[in-house]
Each structure stands twice: as C-alpha cells, then as structure tokens.
Amino acid sequence: MKKYLLSFVICLLAINFALHATHLDYEDIKKIENCISNDKSWHPLNYAIEINDYETGLIICKHSDNVNVVDDGFNPINRILHKASKTVSLNKPAETRPKLGEEKLKLIWAILKKGINVNYTPSNYGIPPHSATSSSSFTYICFLGLEDLFHEFVKRGVNLNQCKGAPLVAAIKAGQMKIIQNLLEEGANANFIALRQAVISENFEAVNILVQFGANINEGNLLMTAICQNKKLGNYLKGIQMLKFLLELGANPNAIAPGTNDPVIKVVLKMPSDTIEQRAYKVDVINILIEHGASIH
C-alpha cells in the first residue's frame, strides 16, 4: 500500500508540475493518502465524495485514469447527486429549494470532462429521494432540476427513457416543470407511469403537459387514483379538483375500477363514510361522476 501511495503521489506531483496546476502541499497529500487507504476499499474518488471532501476529490479526479468506477452501487456522479437528493424537501416549491453547491458542481463537470458513462444505471435503482437505493445520474439531475447538466447529458447521448422512464417520473415527483417540458420535447415517453405520478403528486400542470404529449388519460383508470389517493390522505378538496380535471381532459367516467369488474361510481358507492368529511367527499365524487356522464346502473 505504501509503495502504491508513493507512486501515486509522485505521479500527481509530476503531472501537476507539467500542467502548472495547483501545487500540492503536505495536507493535500495526507488527504489523498486517507482516500487511497480507506477502510471500505473504495476507489479514492468515491471515498472522497463519501466523506464530503470535494476539494480532494477534484485533485484525484484530475489525475485518475478511471472515473467510471462503481462502489456500493454508485459511480462518482451518482454518489454526489444521491447525497444531494436526500436533503430535498418535497414540501417546498422546487424554486425555493437549496441549489447544488459550487464545489460539487465543479467536481461533476471535471468528472464529465474525463469521460464518464452518462448511461450508467444501477441494478437496484429507485426514484429519489429514497435513501436506500441509487438512481441513475440523469434521474438525479432531473429530480434536482439541474438544467445545465440536463442539456450536457442529452448532448452526450443519454437515454431519456432509462429505468422505465425514471427521469421523467423523478422530475414530476419533484415538481421540476422546466425539466419535464425539456424531457418531453427531447423525446421522453409520456407514459402511464409518469401520468400516474403526476396525479399522485397533484401536479395539474404536469398532467396537462403529459396529455398534450400523448399520454393516455384512460390507461389504468386514473380516476380511482385521484379519488383513493386523496381520500387516504384526507385531501378531499384536492381529490375533487383532480377528479374534475381528469374528466375534463377526457377521462372515461364509466371506466372499470382496477381489480374489479365494477365501474368507478359503483366502487365509490361502496366506500366507507364514517365521518362527516368522508360522507361529503363521497357525495361530491358521485355527483361529479354523474355530471360527466357516469351511469349508476
């Protein structure tokens, strides 16, 4: 290990001198040594990111032959963006959330310059901000609303529909309207999974855009999604608003509810109504369905 460390440091110093780069001092070298000899046996770049030492990560990146290395399911850009996504509060509007720090962005651009695979997809991918699984770098970019990186990844040939359309679903979940529009304009599929996420997220604008780009408003019975999701959460007013919105966009009021042979209105008639609010919600839902052409027999 010491021999490897010495060779690595000598290489760094030689390249630094040749390129007239920033001179490495003793503290820099100690930090590099710490990353190389980490107890996880990770690539030093991934370890530097893990311990939030982005300055040392930048030094390692500049003089590393391999930035596509994966440790614990994350490549370097995955790891940076995963850590950032875990701090996102979806209760706040997208435009008011903290921006990605300059040192993190600087390292991401340096990694891109080295030629990282923009289509790397972890085997156990999830939709952020779930903390237990990794997403693709592009999915994180869409979730975080990083427009410059979005366009760079598109330019480099990223698969817009990777992971069953996870980038679009993540953008919808996070309310990143510019990214949603850009994805669809670039050719992302406006599919049912994305449309259902828009309904669950109560994102009326996203629902409308997806339908404009060809999403099928009658696939999978979104009416029940709107009714049951909001009933479960107690968001009765939003449930009514989304139900009306879907019907006005052309949703079939006589659609069969998933997992049954019954139309939506019949399922709603059987819904529990133990409280005053639940009874009022049930009455409103039934009346709206009838107003839009639902049959009661």
TrEMBL record:
Instruction: State the InterPro entries in the record.
Output: Ankyrin_rpt, Ankyrin_rpt-contain_sf, Cul2-RING_E3_ligase_SR
The signal sequence is 1-21
* UniProt keyword annotations, A-Z: Signal
Is Signal one of the keywords? Answer: yes
Q: Which residues form a coiled coil?
A: none
Gene3D superfamilies for the chain = Ankyrin repeat-containing domain (1.25.40.20)
Transmembrane segments annotated in the record for this chain: none
Q: Which SMART domains match?
A: ANK (SM00248)
Q: What is the protein name given in its UniProt record?
A: Uncharacterized protein
